[in-house]
Amino acid sequence: LQIAGLVFGGVGMLGTLAATAMPQWRVSAHVEANLVVFESIWEGLWMDCISQLGLRLQCKLYDSVLALPPPLEALRALMCLAVLLAIVAFLVAIVGVKYSQPSKEGPQAVSTFILAAGVAFLLTGGLVLVPVSWTGGAIVRDFYDPAVPVPLKRELGAALYVGWASSALLLAAGAMYC
Description:
- By secondary structure, this protein is α+β, with helices and mostly antiparallel strands.
- The chain has a single domain, classed as Butyryl-CoA Dehydrogenase, subunit A, domain 3 (Up-down Bundle), CATH 1.20.140.150.
- Helix content is 60%, strand content 13%.
- A 5-stranded antiparallel sheet has the order 4-3-2-1-5.
- Helix 1 runs parallel beside helix 3, helix 2 packs antiparallel against helix 3 and helix 3 packs antiparallel against helix 4.
- The radius of gyration is 20 Å and the shape is elongated.
- The termini are close together.
- One of its GO terms (molecular function) is structural molecule activity.
- It is a multi-pass membrane protein.
- One of its GO terms (cellular component) is bicellular tight junction.
């Protein structure tokens, strides 16, 4: 069970890193009658990208941290905190698995590390779930809002799905350790 939790936590940690770095949080929606679409717009936490015909990709980092809208600043902060906590949880889980072998420290050291890893994985899973679900909810709300112009409508990007899967793996790892 500890090894399974370690694997789930490790994959969840890598997924959290990937979701944080990916530019596909919000992807342009093609909702009109256009059959040929030449451009796709990707919006991420760190940059915007434009893909033309799937052949040419241009990305631009956001110019200034101070010019970002407050929700994007909050999403960035939560995901960065989640990445740090995921790394700490994974390292504590490794130590817990190492000390789960019979040793001089006794069962107290084992249970402390195992419980700490479980709690850290559970916190990380919840921390990843908040910004990913917040973004997903905002995208769905804006997509069905008639006041939002069609060119500004977005769809759920791949990073959100990676984030939800990572959150599920981290929560499962935390449950296994607890």
